[in-house]
Design a protein that fits this description.
mainly beta, about 5% helix, 8 strands, Mss4-like_sf, lyase, 1 helix, carbon-sulfur lyase activity
Length: about 120
């Protein structure tokens, strides 16, 4: 990735919970253009509000690496924060699908929450 993220957020929707095998997905958005090297396995998911998301995974280990959403041109790329393996990565600013957040998950102070996707 080049430059700083446009923002960092977490998503608690059931699709992200299933996709990550965790209770939420932590994502950092970066502006286009971006470069991809290597190969990825793709999976397209249609969200609750009709958005089409293309998720890319490592074809060897299955790690969720990044995704894009159709219809947002130029589309930012959303990269899994864990892919950076950097404990000093900035904390989330937003939390979406808070209606699906596990009650024991506590967010950092100042995080803006949305019951669903604010689009």
């Amino acid at each position: 990735m080049h430059g700083e993220p446009l923002g960092v957020g977490v998503c608690h929707c059931l699709a992200c919970q299933r996709r990550t095998g965790s209770v939420f997905a932590a994502l950092a958005a970066f502006a286009a253009p971006y470069e991809v090297s290597g190969t990825a396995t793709e999976y397209v998911h249609v969200g609750d509000q009709g958005g089409r998301f293309t998720f890319r995974f490592c074809p060897v280990c299955g790690t969720s690496v990044f995704h894009t959403e159709e219809g947002h041109e130029p589309s930012p790329v959303l990269v899994a924060v864990g892919a950076f393996a950097d404990p000093s990565f900035p904390p989330p600013e937003d939390s979406v699908y808070d209606c699906r957040r596990h009650p024991w998950v506590k967010l950092p102070p100042g995080v803006t929450t949305f019951e669903k996707d604010p689009t």
